[in-house]
Amino acid sequence: MFTIENGRLRRFIAGAAAVVGAFAAVGTANAATQDSASDRAARPTIVLEHGAFADGSSWDGVIAKLHRDGYPVVAAANPLRGPASDAAALRSLVDHIKGPVVLVGHSYGGSVISEAAVGEPRVKALVYVAAFLPAPGESALQLTNQFPGSTLSGTLDPVPYSFADGSTGTDLYIQQDKFRAQFAADVPTDRAALAAVTQRPIAQAALEERATAAAWQTVPSWDIVTTGDLNIPAAAQRFMAERAHAHTTEVAASHSVAMSHPDLVADVIKKAARATH
Q1: How large is the C-alpha radius of gyration of the chain?
Q2: Which interval of the chain is the signal sequence (predicted)?
């Protein structure tokens, strides 16, 4: 009869168990990797639409957080010429993206995503960040003036422009020395100074143009209301969020909440994204 000394037998059994355990661990790791890849593949693309007096860099902190959590992200370049034409530009980008999409709009960008998402079945959720949610027939300027609290008009620097065809218009900037107090009071001074220099102007006509459609009437919506906002009064933001039956988060922040509270903004976007699958 074949025999193994007790100590050697114990070592043999322990070694065999270790090998089996290693194979099991590899199988578990492979399964986890596959699950992670599957989860990532199912995640919608987050499309970020900046508003007036900002550019795509205003989303930098939010983008970093979303990327860490595995979300594909595109920060769109908003022409800031008018809701209808800007929505058409955004729709072109959405049409180019494969799979489901969550549209996120800051400030005037809310007007744009509200029009861009109409008739776009791949847009599964809308996220409004200190933003406009106009109903058909309403303009951004009208909604701002409907409630007290905005001090924006006293900080603007209008710049006339003209096109080759002879048509003219007016671009609106925020005066650089007033930018932080008006737009980004809770953003570090050096970061706000850079934002003031790199701000992109909006055509005055864009703020006066009336909405023709409102995707929030049919698409699930989330809204971040900024209670320290001097551009869009908190009362106006609450009115629009309640009317849209949006999932609402309030935060004591300036209009530049994506820069001052990127984690909070990213978390709300992720909640909207998770609700899509």
Answers
A1: 25
A2: 1-31
Cβ 214 vs Cβ 112: under 8 Å: no
Could you tell me the two tokens for 123?
A: 């847009």
Residue closest to 270 by CA, chosen among 32, 43, 39: 43
Sequence-distant (6+) residues with CB within 8 A of 175 are 155, 156, 157
Q: What is the pLDDT of residues 217-258, one digit of tens each?
A: 999 999 999 999 999 999 999 999 999 999 999 999 999 999
Distance of alpha carbon 24 from the chain centroid: 41
With contact defined as beta carbons under 8 Å apart, do 204 and 195 qualify? no
pLDDT tens-place string over residues 55-72: 999 999 999 999 999 999
Minimal CA–CA distance to 116: which of 138, 95, 143? 95
Nearest to 197 by CA among 170, 174, 169, 229: 174
CA 263 to chain centre: 12
In degrees and rounded to multiples of 5, residue 76 shows phi and psi of -70, 150
Whether the CB-CB separation of 227 and 234 falls below 8 Å is answered with yes
- Tell whether the model's pLDDT for residue 15 goes beyond 80: no
Task: Please report the domains of the chain, with CATH numbers, ordered by start residue.
Answer: 44-274 (3.40.50.1820)
Q: What is the pLDDT of residues 192-228, one digit of tens each?
A: 999 999 999 999 999 999 999 999 999 999 999 999 9
